Amino acid sequence: LRFEEATSFRGIALSLCEKEVKIFGKNFYLQPLDQLALLQKKLEESFGKKGLELLYESTKQGFFETSKGLEGLSEVKSEFLTELHNLVKHLGFGNVKIVEVNDKECKALVKVEENPFPEEYVDAFGIKKEPVDHLLAGIIAGYFCKYFERNVDCREVSCKVEGKQYCEFVVSPSS
Ligand SMILES: [Zn+2]
Fold this sequence. Notes:
By secondary structure, this protein is an alpha+beta fold.
């Protein structure tokens, strides 16, 4: 298998070959979503909310670092947001829509349609009354920390796992 896709960025955004998967020049380790759902379920069972926070915090930190590298690729801030959109799509999290960005208050509203993770989660463990996209919330938080140049957090306020039509995330300054 040899596949390379160029998107709106300068250079290759995604490349898959026999030995490795690279996105924006970084190596990625792809794993099936049901395994990710299982890992998350086990973290929650063993450590409760703390386990889910660890997942969120480590992803936030990682994607804050990643977005520092991506910032150099875009000349204007709106391009940087397009990169977020494309990266999330490439990572398989679905179709990200940045509904609102308030630069002054460092707040944002993000909607994600066709997100397969909550669907996979429901298939494995049934409907859940709380959002499950801690990884995606961490990615969005890490990105907006760089975008706003201050520490913000991302909270998922509505999730497909609850039977909603799409997942919705709110970004606001960290308390
Ligand atoms: Zn969700």
